[in-house]
Amino acid sequence: MMQKVLIRVTMVDQKKSRTKAMQIAATVFGVESVALKGADKDQLEVIGEGIDTVELAKLLRKKVGGADLLSVGPAKEEKKPAAAAPAPAKKNETPAVPVQMWTYPMPLSYPVYEIRESEPNCSIM
Questions:
Q1: Separation of alpha carbons 125 and 114, rounded Å
Q2: In terms of Cα–Cα distance, which of 48, 46, 68 is closest to 57?
Q3: Residue-level pLDDT at 112
Q4: What 3 state SS string does the chain have?
Q5: Has this prediction a pTM greater than 0.85?
Q6: What is the DSSP letter of 12?
Q7: What is the C-alpha separation between 33 and 14, in angstroms, rounded?
Q8: Which of 2, 25, 29, 110 is the most buried if burial means most Cβ atoms within 10 Å?
């Protein structure tokens, strides 16, 4: 199940700390996306599956500065617009024909040689 984690990070040097915090969050197992949120861009939004939030907060405290877990919860899936009905085919277009592809190699054919002994001194290979 996808989860969304929101962490407030205390940053000393804004630009450098933001970059470092995002790099650290992106390397944690299970993270799919990282974004900066909030008015001061001091909140880190991490979305992923099976994220160890405590380990992430410890890493951020150790490498960047203070880190406080604000919220942990399920990520809401974005609603996709309903698919429109397919457009009617134009009169000049021919319908697509599926192409059959071979998924395995064809067997190799080897030449066959035959030895005939019609004369005792002659053999053909």
A1: 6
A2: 68
A3: 64
A4: CEEEEEEEECCCCHHHHHHHHHHHHHHCCCEEEEEEECCCCCEEEEEEECCCHHHHHHHHHHHCCCEEEEEEEECCCCCCCCCCCCCCCCCCCCCCCCCCCCCCCCCCCCCCCCCCCCECCECCC
A5: no
A6: S
A7: 20
A8: 25
Rg, Å, the chain Cα set: 32
Paired sense of beta strands 31-37 and 2-9, if any: unpaired
What is the residue-level pLDDT of the chain in tens, covering all 125 positions? Answer: 889 999 998 877 888 888 899 999 999 888 999 999 888 888 999 999 988 888 999 999 998 888 888 989 888 766 556 555 566 555 666 666 555 554 555 555 666 666 665 566 655 65
The alpha carbon dihedral of 52, 54, 57, 58 has a sign of negative
Residue 39: CB atoms within 10 Å: 6
How far is residue 103's CA from residue 73's CA, in Å, rounded to a whole number?
44
